Amino acid sequence: MASRYWVVSLPVQNSASTLWNNLQDQISKHSFDTPLYRFNIPYLRVGTLDSLLALSDDLLKSNTFIDGVSHKIRRQIEELERVSGLETNALTVDGVPVDSYLTRFVWDEAKYPTMSPLREIVDGIHTQVAKIEDDLKVRVAEYNNVRGQLNAINRKQSGSLAVRDLSNLVKPEDIITSEHLVTLLAVVPKYSQKDWLSSYETLTTYVVPRSSKKLYEDNEYALYTVTLFGRVADNFRTSARERGFQVRDFEYSPEAQESRKQELEKLVQDQDMLRSSLLQWCYASYGEVFSSWMHFCAVRVFAESILRYGLPPSFLACVLSPSVKGEKKVRSILEGLCDSANRQVTYWKTEDEGGAMAGLGGDTDAHPYVSFTINIA
Fold first, then answer.
1. Does 240 share its domain with 272?
2. Residues whose CB is less than 8 angstroms from the CB of residue 159 and which lie 6 or more positions away in sequence, other chains included
3. What ranges in the chain are assigned the alpha helix state H?
4. Is 114 helix (H, G, I), strand (E, B) or coil?
5. Is the domain of 176 the same as that of 260?
6. Residue 147 lies in a domain
7. How many CB atoms lie within 10 A of CB 55?
8. What are the DSSP calls for 207-251, one per residue?
9. More confident residue, 155 or 16
10. Which of 7, 40, 38 is nearest to 108 (CA)?
11. What is the DSSP letter of 324?
12. pLDDT, tens digit, 9 for 90 and up, residues 271-301
C-alpha cells in the first residue's frame, strides 16, 4: 500500500475524457509504475469570487488541523496495538481500506449536500473533527490516569528495597507483635550483611538474640527482621542509621494488604477495559476523520481549481502515487498536459514546496496546475 499520494487537477481544454485518456497514455509510457486514479468530485456550489478567495485563505490551515488529528489518532492506535500485543490492523472507512477509500473516492451526498455553500461544508467538517479531537483527549486522559496509578503501584512493588512497598514480601509468621515485643524491618546494603549480622544485637539493649532473619534480597539491598522490646525501638533506629542500616516504617495488616490487592486487580481490569474501549473508538473515529478529510480535499481541489482555471468549472481531478525516483518525470508529464495559456498566468506551489499560490510565472518550484500531497501513514 502506498502511503504518499498527490491530488492534482488539470485544466480541461476539450473534454475531460480525452484529457484522462492522454494522461493514462503518458503515464503508462513514461512512468508505468505510477498508480493513477480519477478523483471524482461532484459539481459543488461555487458562490461568489470573494467567498472563494476568503475560503482559500483558510483551506491550508484547516487541512493542517484535520491531517494532524488523523495522524494523532493513528499514532494512538499504533501505541495501543503495541501495548496490547496485537497485530497491526489495516485501517478502514466503513470496512474499506483507507487507500482504497482515497483512490475510489465517492462523495457522500447525504452527509454533505452538494447544494450547501462550500464554507458551510468546510466549517461542518472542521467542527466534526474538532469534536472528535476533544473526545480523544478526554478518553486518552482517562486511560492514562488509570495507567499512571497502576504504574505507580508497580514501581512501589518492583523498586529498590529502600523505597518499595514491603507488604508482599512479609508473611504473618515473620512479624511478632505483643505487649512488649515488636519486629522491625531493616534494609541492609547487600555488601554489609556480615556487619549487620555481627552487630544488630548490640545496637541497643533488649534486642532478642538471633532474632534477625533475611526475607528478601535485590541487587542493592537485603531485607532483615529484628525483634526487640518496643520501648527501645527508637534507640535502635537511630543506632542502625548511624551504621548505614535503614529501618523501614512498616505495620503488618492483612486487611490493608487484601485491600491493596483488590485495588491492584481492579486497576488492571479498568486499564484493560479502557484500553480495549479506546482502541475500538480510535478505529471508528479514524474512519470518520479520514472520510471527512477526503471530502475536505475534494472541496479544496474544487475551490482552488475554480480560482486557478476560472468558470465554468472545467478540470480533471486525479490521484497519483509516484515513486521518489519517478516524481520528476510525472511532474513533467502533468505540466505537458496543461494548457500553455494557463501556464503563463499563475503557477501553483505545492504545500511541501512552500505552500499557497506563487506569484507570476518563472518560479521553478511551482506548477501550472493545482497539486497537494496526502500522507496516509
1. no
2. none
3. 16-30, 49-84, 98-103, 118-158, 193-199, 233-242, 254-309, 327-337, 340-343
4. coil
5. no
6. yes
7. 22
8. BPTT--EEEEE-SSEEEEEEEEEGGGHHHHHHHHHHTT-EEEP--
9. 16
10. 40
11. T
12. 999 999 999 999 999 999 999 999 999 999 9
Q: Mark whether 12 and 78 lie in a shared domain.
A: no
Residue written as grid cell 506551489: 349
- Asked whether residue 302 falls in the same domain as residue 284, the answer is yes
User: Same structural domain for residues 53 and 153?
Assistant: yes
Match 507488604 to its residue by C-alpha cell: 167
pLDDT 10s digits, 117-175: 999 999 999 999 999 999 999 999 999 999 999 888 877 777 788 888 888 888 888 98
Which residues face 211 on adjacent strands? none
Structural contact between residues 170 and 215, judged by C-beta atoms closer than 8 angstroms: yes
Residue-wise pLDDT tens digits, 303-320: 999 999 988 889 999 999
**What's the mean per-residue pLDDT of the chain?**
88
Asked if the bond preceding 11 is cis, omega within 30° of 0, the reply is: no
Q: Are 108 and 115 in contact (CB under 8 A)?
A: no
Q: Determine the distance from the C-alpha atom of residue 222 to the mean position of all C-alpha atoms in its chain, rounded to a whole number.
A: 42
Distance CA 349, CA 367 (A): 6
Range of the domain at 235: 172-251
What single-letter DSSP state applies at residue 344? Answer: T
d(CA 335, CA 154): 61
Q: Assess if residue 128 is contained within a domain.
A: yes
Q: Give the number of other Cβ atoms within 10 Å of residue 237's Cβ.
A: 19
Within 8 A by CB and 6+ apart from 365, the residues are 349, 353, 354, 358
Q: Which cell is 119 given?
A: 464554507
| Residue 370 covered by a domain | yes
Q: How far apart are CA 116 and CA 45, in angstroms?
A: 7
Put the strands of the sheet holding 181-189 in their side by side order: 213-217, 221-229, 181-189, 246-248
The strand pair at 36-38 and 315-320 is best described as: antiparallel
Please compute, for residue 78, the number of CA atoms within 13 A of its CA located in the half-sphere on the CB side.
7
Q: How far is CA 281 from CA 135, 274, 278, in A?
A: 10, 10, 5
Cell of 67: 491531517
Residues 65, 153 share a domain: yes
- 24: β partners: none
